[in-house]
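Lecture 7 notes: from sequence to structure.
We start with the chain below.
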Amino acid sequence: MHRFYLPNFQQPALSTAETHHATHVLRLKSGDIVNVFDGRGHEAQCRFNEAGKLTILQQTQTLPLPCRITLAQAVPKKNMDLIVEKATELGVATIIPLLSERTIVRLDENAGKLDRWREIALESCKQCGNNWLPVIEPPRKVPAFLAGTGASDLKLIASLQPGAQPLKTILGPTRPRSVLILIGPEGDFTPAEISSAKNAGCLPLSLGPLVLRAETAAIYTLSILHHELQLA
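Predicted structure tokens for the same chain:
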């Protein structure tokens, strides 16, 4: 069944872009049944009418995942789009693009990409059935981010430095309700940034002995977090 984004169920009508897609691409007709979601856990089965108007037939609510995961990702030169897509599929609640000292992409070049990342997350939600649209915050420099990371039950930073531990060792018997994970860019975070992250309460997380690409590190880390914390 076709699935559309409807941010306000009190106003049951698709946006102009969604209506165009429904009528001119998908060839939907009045009376066809579609699904809509609001990005905040609500989903509804609707009858599609002319001009994109909807008649809501049945509503359901999806509970959030047990652990709220925030990905603070240093923007890589390539594949940030892929990271956003896969993070959405893995149920991440918030994505914060970071601009580290080794980030190649400049801040002003990212300003126009925020809308693109949000659109990618939305399309990913439609595709994978995720009813919770992740929040994607504007890019931030690492020092500004670390100065106000907020409260999380567990804060992690992916690290190749000696002393970094695997997730099972860090978790032990505990199951946090919220996790912040920092992933570096090509070349990793600088020693100064890693030191600052530790001072902000981040524990060094080992991803194994091999050096992973930024997008691989993000997908791998989110996958093991999902397995350990969301499926219990």
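Points to note: The chain has eight helices and eleven strands. The longest strand covers residues 54-61.
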